[in-house]
Specification:
Order of helices and strands of chain A: EHEHHHEEEEEHEHEEHEHEHEEEEEEEHH
Shape of chain B: globular
Radius of gyration of chain B: 23 Å
CATH architecture of the largest domain in chain B: Up-down Bundle
CATH topology of the largest domain in chain B: Glutathione S-transferase Yfyf (Class Pi), Chain A, domain 2
CATH architecture of the largest domain in chain A: 3-Layer(bba) Sandwich
Largest interface: A-B, 44 and 56 residues
Number of domains of chain B: 5
Number of helices of chain A: 11
Radius of gyration of chain A: 24 Å
Oligomer: heterodimer
Number of domains of chain A: 2
Number of strands of chain B: 8
CATH topology of the largest domain in chain A: FAD/NAD(P)-binding domain
CATH superfamily of the largest domain in chain A: FAD/NAD(P)-binding domain
Shape of chain A: globular
CATH class of the largest domain in chain B: Mainly Alpha
Number of helices of chain B: 27
Number of strands of chain A: 19
Helix content of chain A: 25-40%
Strand content of chain A: 15-25%
Helix content of chain B: 40-55%
Structural class of chain B: alpha/beta
Distance between the termini of chain A: 23 Å
Distance between the termini of chain B: 29 Å
Structural class of chain A: alpha/beta
Amino acid sequence: MAIDSEVLVVGGGIAGITAAIAAAREGADVRLVSHKASTLRQASGLIDALGYVPPTEPAKPLREGPPTAGWNLDPDEWPDPEGPIADPFEAIDRLPEDHPYRLVGADALREGLALFDDLVGDAYLGGHTDRNALVPTFGGSVKPTARYPASAAAGVASDDRPTLIVGFRSLTEYDARAFADRLAAAGVPFDVAGAEVEFAEAFRADAKVTRLAKALDRDEPIDGTPAREALAKAVGPHLHDVVDEAGGVDRVERVGFPAFLGDDHAAEVRAALADRLGADVFEVPMGPPSLPGLRLEDLLYDALDDAGVRFETGTPAVGYETDEGGAGGDGNGGRIDHLVMDRKGSEVPYGAEAVVLATGGLVGKGLDSDRDGVREPVLDLHVPQPADRYEWFVDDAFGEQPYARFGVRPDERLRPLDGSGEVAYGNVRVAGGVVGGADVAREKSASGVSLATGLVAGREAAREVQQ
Amino acid sequence: MTRHTENGDGADGTDGSHGDGGPNDGDRRGANDAQRCGCGGTDGTPQPNVPEIGRDERPAIFVPDGGDEEGAGAGPSETDGSAAADAPRTATDGGVESATGGSDSTELDPDAYDPIDVFPEGDLDLRDGADSCYKCTSCDTSCPVAEVDDEFPGPKFQGPEQWRLKRKDDHDIDESITSCSNCMRCDDACPSSVPLSQMHNEARGQFVEEQMEKLSLEYVRNRILANYRTSARLASVVPRLSSFAMNFGPARWAMDKVLGIPKEREFPEFATTTFREWWRDRGGAQIENPDKRVAYFHGCYSNYNTPEVGKAMVRVYEHFGYEVMVPPQKCSGTPMFANGMLKDARRHAETNVENLVEAIGDGADVIASCTSCSMSLRQEYPELFDIHGIEDVSDHTFEALEYLRIHEDLDGALAESDGPGDEQSFAYHAPCHARNQGLARQAVETFRDVDGVEMEDVGDSCSGISGTYGWKSEKYEKSMQIGEEMFDHMEDAEGEVGMTECPTCAMQMEHGTGYEIEHPLQLLEETLVA
C-alpha cells in the first residue's frame, strides 16, 4: 500500500500549483507535495511574463582558444537587452529556439495567465491587456510585469499623478528618498518625493515586517493611538513634499509604502489609510520578507483546496522506482512507478500514474550543483552542461551567463529528454524553474514560464492518466 | 510495501528474556556503544537485551555533564574515530580541529588544490547549517512569536546568528531565546534546510544550564511545566480532587502571582482511569499478530487526561488486525526541549528509546497519537541525543493516522462505512508540529469524502499555545494574540466541534472558542469501529 494519486506534482511554487490545478480541472486526482513551505513567500508577488529579450550572441565573435576563467569578454561588446518589452506575446519569437516559451507556444502563456486571473480574482490586476505594466520596485527601478497585486495598482509608473514615497528608518533596505531620486532619474512621468516618517520607531528597531503588518491588521494601539491612525498621522505632514519642475508645490495624490500594510486585512488597511490621507495608497513590492508573496501564497493554496487538490509540505522526494514492464523501444522512455518521500526519517512510497516535476531551478534547489557538475536530484534527469566548469559562466556578472539557462530539456509535451535526445520517462512532465533554456532573471519571465509550462505539464499529466 | 521486516526474525525468540530494562540502562548509554553500532549494526555482535539494530548516525548536540560520555564536550576526539570513516560525523561542541585538518593528508597537492579544501569535512558541528543560511528571512516571516512580540528578534537571529556569537566563550546566550515557543515553523519555512530548531534547542539548553538562576521562580515554574508528566502522575492518584484543586480560584490566583501560571487558563481535567490502567484492566492486547505489530507511544496527555484518544487508537488498530503493544514510557521531551531542560529530556529519552527499540526488535513500528510526541521521536531525538538505537526509533515512528494511510486502504474502509451515526461538522486545526511532518492536511483529506462528515481546515496559523508557552503569565497575552486568527476562523467555520491532534492546541482551541475538541482517532473509531 502506498499514498496513491493519479497525478503527483512535486513542488509548491507557481509552476507546481498551476500544474496541479490544470490537471485537476481535467478531472485528474491530484496530489501536490513540497519539501518546504512554498518559496512564494520570498517572491515579490509580481507576475512577470517577459520584460526583456537579452542578447544571446556577443557583438563580436568570441575569441578562439580554450576558455580560462570565463570568456574574458568586455561586457561592452554585448548589446544591451531589448526592452522593456511592451507586449510579451509578440516578443516570444525573438527568444532562443529552445526557450520554454518557444516549446509550449505563446498560447500556453496566454492560457496560463488566464488561469492565474481566474484563481486570484480581483486581488490582481493587469489582465485587461496583453501589454506589460510598469511597476516601481523597492530598489527604485521600474519593472515590466504582466500582473500586479491590487495593492500595487495605484503606483504604476504610467500614471502621472504626483507621488510621495514613504520610508522608515528601521527598514534599512528601503531608503525612501534614494528610491524617489532613482525613480525621478529613471524618467518617470510624475513628480515624486521621498520622506522618512516616524511610525516604525514605536517598535523595536529590528522588528519584523510581519510584526508591523500584524499591528496594522489588528489596528493595535501604538502609544495609545490605533496603528492605522498613527501611521496616517506620521505621513500627514509630508503630503506637500513634492515639488514640480516649476518649483510649485502640489498636494500628492498617491502615497507609496513599503509592502507591510497588513496581511489578512490588507485591503482594509489600505482603505483606512487612503481615507485618512485623502490620497490613493499603494505598496511597493519588496524582496523577502515579502507580504505580497505571502498573500499570494494564501490565495493560491486556497485555490488548490477549492480545486480538490490534496497537498502537503515537509516531505522531500528522496528516491523513485521505475515500472519494470513499462520501458520499451517505443521511444517513449521508461515509466516512474512511484516516488519515495522522506517523512522525518521514514521513507514512504507515493504512487502515481503521472508525475509533474516542478522543483525549481538552481536557487529553488530543483537543480543541484557542485564542482563536478549540475544535476537534477529527484529523478536524476539529464541536465546538459559544458564539461569544463569554467564554461558555466562569463566574467560579466550581468552578462549572458550559461548557467542561468541550465536545466532539464523537455520536448514540446514537456517530457524530459535524456542525453541522446530521447524521452527519459514517458509519464513525467517538467515545469517551471527546473526547465532549462530561459534566463528568467534577465528576461523577467520567471512567473510566466512557470504558468505556461505548469499549465501544459498539468494538462499533459492528466491526459497521460486518461490514456 | 514499506514495512521494515528485516529485523523481525532475529528478535522473535527473545520476548521472554527482555527485562523491564531499568537496572542497567545507565551502563549502556555510553558513546562507545553508540559508536559500535553506528557502523551498520549487522556485523557487530548483539548486545544483551538490545536488538541488533541500534544506529545513531546523525549529529547530536546535547550530552549530559562533561565527563558523563567519553570524549563528549572535549572536541572531536576518539569518539569520532571509526564511524567518521563511513558517515561524516559532526562533533558535539562545534570545535574545529585545525585550519587544514580533516583529511588524512596534511600536504595539499598543488595540482588538485581547491580553496575549499582548507576546511575539514565533517567535524563542523552546526557550522554547515549556519553557512547554509542565506538570510532570506523566510524563517522570520513564518515566526508566530515575532508577529506579535517585537522584543523577539526572530529565528534567524536565534539560529545561525546566535550560534556564531556563542562560539567563543566570551559571549552569553541572548535571553530572548526563552521567548521562542519551539513551534518549529522556521524549520519548515527554511528553503535551505538550516537546522533552526536544533540550533534553538541547543542555545536554549545552554542558556538554562549556564545562565539561568536555578533558584529563581521562573526556573522552578518552567521545570514544573516541563515535567508535566510528574505532576500529572501525582494528580492522577486522586484525579477528581486534583481537577478541582488545580482550578480552585484562590489557588489559581496564588499560582499566577507566585509562579507565573496565568489564572485565565483552566487546567485540564484528569481522567479517573488512566489509559494504562484501562489497558491493564482489559488484559492488554486483544489481538496477537506477529506480522502486524505496533507499539503505541501514548504520551502523557492521552494517558492522564484524554484516555479516550488512546482507547480509540487501540480499537481502530485492532479493527485493522494489528497487535498493539504498550511499552513502558516516559515523557517524549517536547515540553522539556521548549524549556531548555535537556537533562530531564535525556533522562526520559533513555527509557523511551530503550523500550521502543525493544518493541521495534519485536517487529513493531512506533505509533504516536500526539503530533508533538511523534515529532520529538522522529526529529529532536536524533538531533539532540546520542543514545543507542535512537535512529531506529526515529525511522520507525509514525503518527497514528499517517501509518494507517500508508499501510491500510483507509479510504476504501471509510467509503464502505456508513459514516458516524449523525451528521458532524468539524473545525480542524493542524498543529505546527504536524505541519513539519507533512501531516497538516491528512485529517481533512481522510474525512473529506466520508458521508455525514464536514471537515473544514481553519487555516495555517499557529494556535499560539505552543505547549508550555501559553502557560506562562508573561506570555499569555501574546499567546492569545497569536491564536486570534485561528479563533476567528473557527468561529467562521460551519462546525461547532474543533478537531486537532495536539493536546495543547486543543486546550487553546477550547479556551479561545469554548468548543469541544476531538482527536481524529476518535472520529475514526466512531466511523469504523462503533
